Amino acid sequence: MNKIQKLQLAQQITGHTFKNPDWLWEALQAAGSDVSKLNGRTLPEGNRPLAGLGDLVIDLIIKSDCYNSNMSTGSTVTLLQTRVNNNRLARLCGKSGLAECINLNPSQSLATPILCAATVEAVVGAVYQDTSGNLANVRDVMSKMGIIDWAGSSSSATTSSSSSSSS
Prior knowledge:
The protein has about 170 residues and is an all-alpha fold.
């Protein structure tokens, strides 16, 4: 798959049309990929810095929704542990088809679970950057990707917590 096809598929998966597709392209870079520079920024670590931002944004949205649902701190921690662990994010990446969009290091033939999890986080970070921090847009993408299942309605976080812990 070439760059344009990867970007088109990734946008279809996320349900977000990027104003600046370079954010998404950065999110799809494995460390050591053939893209070492983008928009004047060097990418020696691939999507890792953007994944760090995405991880924080995911936590912010989930914690905010839990707070607004009057969920206890313990229940919030449990929800975060079940929703945002690397194994689950890697499965979501593979199941959605996003793994096929990752621009791998030339020595790789397959995306590792850690790379897949980081890519999901990086895509969330890319949406955050592309929308100038619009959390409603990010929440919609998180819902479309299966990270959360209560888009737009923070009161549903409580219901999701009971169904997540029983899965």
